[in-house]
Amino acid sequence: MTRLLTLIIMVFQVSSAWALAGTIQNVLGTGKIHKQTGQIYPAIRNDQLYEGDTVIVDNASNLQIRMIDGAVVWLRSNTEFKIDTYKSKRNGARTDESSLKLITGSLRTVTGIIGKQNPDGYKLNTPNATIGVRGTEFDAVYVSPSSANQFRAESGTYHRVFQGATEFRAGGRDQRVEEGQAVFASQSNPSGASKLQDIPNFLNLPPNSTQSPPPSSPTTTTANSNSAPLLLSVRYGNPNENVVSSRGQVPPSRVFTYRLENGKQSMVLGQSILGDLPLLIGNELIDSSKYSIAIKASTVPNSDNLQLSFGDVQATGKSSPSSSYKLTLDLSKGNWLEVSSQGPWQSKEKVARGRANSSNTPVFVMINSDR
What we know:
Blueprint: H1 2-17, E1 20-28, E2 31-34, E3 40-42, E4 48-50, E5 54-57, E6 62-67, E7 72-75, E8 79-87, E9 97-110, H2 113-117, E10 122-126, E11 129-133, E12 137-143, H3 148-151, E13 156-163, E14 165-170, E15 173-178, E16 182-186, E17 194-195, E18 198-199, E19 219-220, E20 230-236, E21 254-260, E22 266-269, H4 270-273, E23 279-281, E24 284-286, E25 291-299, E26 305-315, E27 327-332, E28 337-338, H5 346-352, E29 363-369
Parallel strand pairs: 9-10
Antiparallel strand pairs: 1-4, 1-6, 2-3, 2-5, 5-8, 6-7, 7-9, 8-9, 9-12, 10-11, 11-14, 12-13, 13-16, 14-15, 16-17, 18-19, 20-21, 20-29, 22-25, 23-24, 25-26, 26-27, 28-29
């Protein structure tokens, strides 16, 4: 009986160690999965990943993972990433818990249910730092001593927040990293981690980039008034809340915001600023979690006017970007401008043509200074 109980316990422990963590959604180039049992397999789309698995992304490649709680992780070129723990209540676990490890390389992630409902249960570790979240989208890069020449950067952990906020811990010291900020903890002195004024180019890559770390110099942020960050807002629904429908109801509105560097183009994940808007690229409707769009906002010197442009769209799995949704706008700071059926919102109209009951919700954009 004792031997039988021991066997049952061993089986339970093994099955727990192999808990499902996520699925590979897309592979650009090549990569490998190193199982905790020692086997190594090529990374293939729709492969399932389990606790204990290590994913290795080869040069000039990119791998996208969707975790069981809906989080998305993009692993860029020359990256090694391990799933230590990943448990979600919606998959039968007793708690929401995530512990991930960036061993080397670069990633972008948009957190899922765990990061939103139990932020204390989420952490991403690097060899010299830990990142906790409060429901967010961020980049993490660990430059190992052996890859410092390739990055042309000091070895250590680089971290940038695109949406939300994180808690960054290095050398026994905690600090909060807000939206738009970046921080660096050096390998030699992690307790001296500090916010970055100059953003390295490898912290400004699109999620699905396959390029190796660029050798170009960092982007410098100057302190003059025209370099103040800008806050882009996209609103689905009339900004005049007094407008009611024919049934006497106020139409529901959704607002998405994103912080942009003044005068600098950024690749922004679709769902971060366009919500759940799918884009029709060729004959394929692409979900907003699977494309990034180039956006640039600039102030016009000596005025309150701004220029906003939407550029190329890069979809996961597509070798070249789409230029079908380009749009340039002149705006007055702090004022809503309707953009329904323009730029990326053309796709909404294209999809609607074949649907009798499609929503006619108007779309507006606005830019303000983010100070």
